[in-house]
Write the structure tokens for this entry.
Amino acid sequence: MMGATKLLGLTCGVIIEEGFERDALDRIQASMRAACREAGVPIVTGDTKVMGRGELDGLVINTAGFALASRVVRDNGLKAGDRLIVTGTVGDHGLAVMAARNKLQLAGDLKSDVAPLFDLVQQVLSAGGEGVVAMKDPTRGGVASALHEMAAKAGVGVLLDERSVPVSDAARAASELLGIDPLHVANEGKALIGVRPEVADRVLAALQAHPLGRDAALIGTVIAEPVGKLVLDTGFGRRLLAEPEGEPLPRIC
Amino acid sequence: MSAPLRTLEFRDPLKAKQLGARLSEVVDQVGREPVSVMHVCGSHEQAIARFGLRSAFPKKLDVVMGPGCPVCITDVPEVDEAVALALQGVRVATYGDMLRVPGTVKSLGDVRGEGAKVEVVYGIDQALELARATPAEELVFFATGFETTAVATASALLHDPPPNFSVLSAHKYIPPVMEIVTEMPGSRIEGFLAAGHAAVITGSNVFEQFVRDHGVPVVVAGFEPLDILAALVRLTELVRDREPKVVNMFPRCVTAEGNRVAQEQLWQVFTPTGGQWRGIAHVPNGNLRLRDDFARFDARRRFTIDVAKLWAYAPPRLLGQCRCGEIMSGSKRPSDCALFGKACVPESPVGACMVSTEGTCRIWHQYGGHLDLRSVS
């Protein structure tokens, strides 16, 4: 999520707990192979270690990517007046995981949005050029956490329009049921993109023309104050959107 | 993708604006300020905060959050009992937001971190499943909450729970505390918004006696933005017209009689008893205790719970400065507390109001309290 134009490879460090099931390891390996094929990027280096039983919880995988970029786009480039785009529905991954972990029998097609975004981001960069000023993937902590970090690093605030944020019906239903804000939930196949206002429409159109960006939407505007805060316009009034703390826990009623 | 948020009929921002304007009119007609009303439900505060409604309320209207957060009013010794059980090696299951509520020295989350068996469940049925899955191990459900969760507990105990299952009841009953708050010296409360989901069970009739005794109107309200605004309009009309009565503004769910079956089960399993509500007062008939017929499922009677061991430690110094009680009874705001946002934050709460997502302090901290954000552009 830094403006790569040519992917070179991934590292893959694996630490396995003694006694970890081989079947599970084989499944993970097959899944990684499939993901690499899909993204067109090889795993080129890495190391595997085994640690004693009880010294870690099953398995730890750490990866980093390296690539070439003609212009590095960081997550700190926002300034007042910039527009914020999300590349699709938010909250699907985290809510799907929560529903599965809690064995919630939900109707509908709630599933993780995990997807490689390289191609989509290429479209963004070619449509928006220098006008694409900041990017970040809203993984752990969701859109709220990622936008807080982007705002704090750039010394700006964000005015977010809640009703513009795309949320799938299934994720909306799960979030209402669990009392958890989709803006606080992890995504695995989405990007937050800050653009100069003059390229916003062009970038949005390019995203919506891509299969992974069909639901892309303009969700907010960068403001000068309050610095480091997200102001959420709910359509009824306004409030601050907080940064999530720890794991989202279900409410009592 | 048709986001239901956009289409739900009780979330129409245009109608909300109209109701907001009407609310201002009625409050003006009362002719004095502030007009103070209280809701007694964490879910109401959650909805008010989440939808940013406070910024749409007229300035002359003070909507006070009463003792309606079940997590916040669970008393310290009750948390201590659960913590002590967990430390004694008993498996304890409870609702997620009970995990971080501080007891005298520790929370359930603290002892879970130290290796005690503490499980987070969404409801009592999950706790029952856990108990059935491990029949050789005792499982205690730390049961908190008002009428809404108490009926779930009652129903579970009436439907053949496994023998290794028991309940540590910290259930509370709302109607008695409304009397306590109204009778508190210096109380400014002129009307109550009653919680719609609790009234689904109790029926709106449960408030008639209170209105007769205290001459304060009660309006039963739902939880969508339009439910809350419409109920506030009706409540302030009743204040304006000096008309103390019960009005049901949540008729799509609530009836006058309520859910008879649930009420029968509730009182078959529980009996009201006096008890301390954290930071508020001793509330006569405010606690729900398991009847003798269910003694074998009562964790207090099944185990010797040694809370004194916990009290050997010195209690936290800061607790003495905590203003949760006054905040929950409506006489202070979080910003009046010296600890708020400084020594008391969600990561390390001093008072229970900062723990629960339904707690006033937590909600103010999370959503910016009464910060006026209308002018931000």
Summary: Residues 22-39 of chain A form the longest helix (18 residues). The interface with chain B takes residues 89, 102, 104, 157, 159, 162-163, 166-169, 172-173, 179, 181, 215, 223, 225-226, 229, 231-240, 242, 245, 249-253 of chain A (CB under 8 Å). DSSP finds six helices and 13 strands in chain A.
